[in-house]
Design brief:
The protein has 19 helices and no strands. The chain is mainly alpha-helical. It has a single domain, classed as Growth Hormone, Chain: A (Up-down Bundle).
Length: 424
């Protein structure tokens, strides 16, 4: 007797929504430093380099644990893994609120990053378990929208909350919300039984399963996409989670904290729309004969051009450039379901976490490097020198051009999958 397929409402309430809530929290923690940085400068005395290191520390264990996380997701399932990780994030958030020095803040933020290491990957694993392959891109886009809402919450709402509680108190509240979300995942999300005839995620020894990670990391199609994806995520996440705030103050000349937070709110709102539309845009391209691979290449090129705009023409309508940055930066996330679809379905956790290993290693090093570049110029009366931002953002633009060139010149093809359209 065949079990009845779950309804859309059941999947939304018991699968999509709990993982989306965890991802919402992840983006609050990623972006909160772009608002609280003046308080950290005042209370802890950090520099631009320190700020870059502190913010990128979120991605240190985030990146380092990805190979293990991929095996754990495929072996134990996204529900159980995410419950444990969110409890870790709660501990890190509480420690952040108790910290009195840069070193203590970094340790706490590393724990927070570890706690949210599965925010996207656990959801992608759940999506591949519960939704048909033709829906993966669309559902992934909607999941990313939850992250966009988290980025919005990390702007003006966070600035408003700091008029009610201290930045330390804010992190105590966030710790409690993390624990509550962990409990929701444990109680609400069902386990997914293996499909008849499908390869078992738990089959073989741990060594055998890590060999699959090695196979992913040596695949040619994976490395055709990964360099551009990594650099664009560095530019996108690095700015959204931190550098947009200092840029608006130091290059944009906006001294008022609430005014900066307002611009950040609008940018992240447009970004959220971009996440929601990413799968829709890909499907629209497909209907007119443009493959998913080519459509995401087009949006990646447009995003790179906006990065060049902010680097070399910062005074030319920045109020237009930043919302475009938010919208276009959200669209290349469609590389992720495209990459996952290029491998057997039971590889899904390891494909996505292998990608994250590279992406967030680059973000960790790159976000710190941006701060170091900005610090090369003497500080101004209001903050950091605009010249530093020109060089840092300009480097990101050039690296994206190199990634696009590699994407165009590489001839690597994906593994044959029945549900995967030709790459080009």
């Amino acid at each position: 007797m065949t079990a009845k397929a779950p309804t859309f409402a059941t999947l939304f309430l018991r699968v999509f929504l709990p993982f989306a809530l965890a991802y919402f929290l992840s983006y609050i923690f990623r972006g909160v430093n772009a608002v609280i940085f003046p308080y950290l400068e005042r209370d802890i005395g950090i520099t631009a380099g320190d700020l870059g290191l502190l913010t990128s520390a979120f991605f240190l264990f985030f990146a380092g644990c990805q190979p293990v996380l991929g095996v754990m997701l495929d072996r134990y399932g996204p529900r159980r893994v995410q419950v444990v990780l969110l409890a870790t994030a709660a501990v890190g958030s509480a420690l952040f609120g108790l910290s009195l020095s840069l070193g203590e803040l970094i340790v706490a933020r590393v724990l927070i990053g570890l706690g949210f290491a599965g925010g996207l990957m656990a959801a992608i694993k759940a999506i591949t378990l519960w939704y048909p392959p033709e829906r993966w891109g669309l559902i992934t886009g909607f999941h990313m929208m939850a992250g966009g809402l988290g980025s919005m919450a990390a702007t003006l709402p966070v600035e408003w909350s700091l008029s009610v509680v201290s930045w330390q108190g804010l992190f105590f509240w966030l710790a409690g919300i993390c624990l509550a979300t962990s409990a929701i995942l444990f109680i609400v999300v069902p386990e997914r039984a293996a499909q008849p005839g499908a390869p078992s995620d738990k089959g073989g020894t741990l060594i055998d399963q890590f060999r699959i990670t090695g196979a992913v990391l040596t695949d040619g199609f994976y490395w055709r996409i990964q360099p551009l994806l990594s650099i664009q995520q560095l530019a996108f996440i690095g700015c959204i989670t931190l550098w947009i705030g200092p840029w608006l103050r130091d290059v944009g000349g906006i001294a008022d904290k609430e005014a900066r937070a307002d611009i950040q709110l609008w940018t992240t709102a447009i970004m959220t729309l971009g996440f929601a539309m990413s799968g829709v845009v890909s499907n629209a391209f497909r209907r007119v004969g443009v493959t998913a691979f080519m459509s995401v290449g087009i949006t990646s090129t447009l995003f790179a051009l906006v990065c060049g705009w902010l680097a070399f023409l910062p005074s030319f309508h920045p109020a237009v450039a930043w919302p475009l940055f938010g919208f276009l930066g959200a669209l290349p996330i469609q590389y992720m379901p495209l990459m996952v679809s290029a491998f057997p379905p039971h590889y899904a956790g390891r494909v996505s976490t292998s990608s994250n290993l590279v992406v967030f290693s680059v973000i960790f090093a790159g976000q710190w490097a941006i701060g170091k570049i900005v610090d090369l110029w003497p500080r101004t009366a209001s903050g950091y020198s605009p010249d530093g931002y020109t060089w840092a953002f300009g480097a990101l633009f050039v690296l994206q051009l190199a990634g696009l060139l590699w994407l165009a010149l590489s001839r690597a093809r994906p593994m044959a999958q029945p549900h995967l359209a030709p790459a080009e």
